[in-house]
Design brief:
This protein has helices spanning 28-39, 49-56, 71-79, 128-133, 156-162, 171-177, 180-192, 199-208, 217-227, 233-242, 245-250, 263-269, 274-279, 287-293, 298-309, 313-319, 324-331, 335-345, 352-360, 370-374, 382-397, 404-413; strands at 15-17, 44-47, 64-67, 84-89, 94-98, 103-108, 110-115, 120-124, 143-144, 149-151. By secondary structure, the protein is an alpha+beta fold. Among the domains are: 1-168, Beta Polymerase, domain 2 (2-Layer Sandwich); 310-360, no CATH class; 370-413, no CATH class. The chain is elongated, with a radius of gyration of 27 Å. The mean pLDDT is 90.
Length: 414
């Protein structure tokens, strides 16, 4: 992580300059929000992850903006200009504005009056500095205006430069306002911190971890979707394990295979989706509990259940053996995922060369089909089905070496 050289940190008035708006911030919908908010007597600014990640040199994801005018006024104006308005969180002053190419979440500047860890009672406030205080971390409270000027009342730019992840204000208060910030801290820590987590912060996370039990499954799942594919997985799950966040958030404790810490394994896990990584870290048989906790879709549940069933130690040994293609064929497109998951669960080192072979291998197709048997006088029915199964087994046992003539000759004689 390295700050962009165009950022000036020397201004003492909480305003720093970059060299104008970056290209990603000049998209048509963003410009329109800037212009229309100003026409209504207010101001719009880009804030949060997009600003943070751009300054830190990371790829830009979703773009969020804030406006210091009533959100319904902006929504009504944008709707007259063929901009779709989705009321994604109107009770908290949030809408999503969409055109044909883009979607931007826009929130009215506010202050949280009362929170219970999940919900907040808010009041709207034009003061940008007050809006900044209710945010989670200082690095997420950096605003960029239409001219590319930063407003940084909490010192987020310096924290980015120093590699320090710091809560906005009192950490305990921020967490009790929204317990999801505990999980978000774990996600951001290896990405934006250059130093080890201090004991005070770790104790604070452990102290409040139980609050995660009350979070909705959808919100927890959204964080884990990012954690599991965000890099530095071993660091994150260790922190969550030590702080008891895993038990509170998921209802289980992670099983920390020493293999997860190797660079080779980390590189392999980076190639998989979040559910594959998650199932490799949880106890066998916990798929139903986790699927219900995270409110997974039916498709996700089926995927998770299959990986949770896993494969036997004997099957894993076969995958690591000379005739690995035979067992890989029977496992089908699951073979690489099951190989990695079961290796981690059994604490068996992943053979990187074998994994690469599995990943690049394309499942072959059986050389004979029903039409081949029909042409040799075999009628459609149970006998044909049995012959096809026998032929496939013979072909697989030959390590896929036998061709159609040899297989037909053998099956017709038997």
């Amino acid at each position: 992580m390295g700050l962009l050289p165009g950022v000036n940190l020397t201004n003492q008035n909480n305003s720093q300059f970059c060299h104008g708006l970056p290209e990603w911030a000049q998209r048509p919908l963003i410009k329109k929000i800037f212009i229309e908010t100003m026409a209504l007597g207010g101001e719009a600014r880009i804030v949060g992850g997009a600003v943070r990640d751009w300054i830190a040199g990371y790829a830009i994801g979703d773009i969020d903006m804030a406006v210091n005018i009533p959100i319904n006024k902006l929504s009504a104006k944008m709707a007259t200009q063929n901009i779709k308005v989705v009321e994604t969180g109107l009770n908290h002053g949030t809408v999503t504005l969409c055109d044909q190419e883009d979607s931007i979440e826009v929130t009215q500047t506010r202050v949280d009056l009362k929170t219970d860890g999940r919900h907040a009672i808010v009041a709207y406030e034009r003061d940008w500095a007050i809006d900044a205080v209710r945010r989670d971390f200082t690095i997420n409270a950096i605003y960029m205006d239409k001219d590319g000027v930063f407003f940084d009342p909490l010192g987020g730019l310096k924290d980015l430069k120093r590699g320090r992840l710091r809560f906005a204000g009192d950490a305990g208060e921020r967490i009790q306002e929204d317990a999801l910030r505990i999980i978000r801290y774990c996600r951001f820590w290896p990405r934006f911190s250059k130093c080890r987590i201090d004991q005070k912060t770790q104790n604070m996370l452990r102290k409040h971890a139980s609050l995660c039990k009350e979070l909705s499954g959808e919100r927890v799942a959204n964080e884990f979707r990012r954690i599991m594919v965000g890099g530095s997985l071993a660091q994150v799950i260790k922190l969550m394990h030590i702080s008891n966040i895993d038990q509170a958030a998921l209802g289980i404790k992670f099983e920390l295979s020493s293999q997860v810490e190797s660079k080779e394994t980390s590189a392999i896990l980076d190639q998989f989706d979040w559910l594959t990584c998650l199932v490799a870290l949880v106890p066998v048989g916990s798929s139903a509990l986790i699927a219900n906790r995270l409110r997974l879709s039916r498709k996700e549940k089926r995927f998770f259940f299959r990986l949770d069933v896993g494969i036997s130690g004997a099957e894993l040994a076969l995958l690591n053996g000379k005739n690995w293609r035979q067992i890989a064929y029977h496992l089908g497109h699951w073979n690489t995922m099951l190989y990695v998951v079961q290796s981690l669960r059994n604490n068996v080192p992943i053979n990187v060369a074998r994994y690469n072979e599995l990943a690049s291998w394309r499942l072959p197709q059986s050389p004979i089909c029903g039409a081949d048997l029909l042409s040799h006088g075999v009628d459609i029915g149970p006998r044909m089905g049995q012959m096809l199964i026998m032929a496939e087994k013979r072909w697989v046992a030959s390590n896929f070496a036998l061709g159609k003539p040899e297989i037909l000759h053998w099956i017709l004689r038997n």
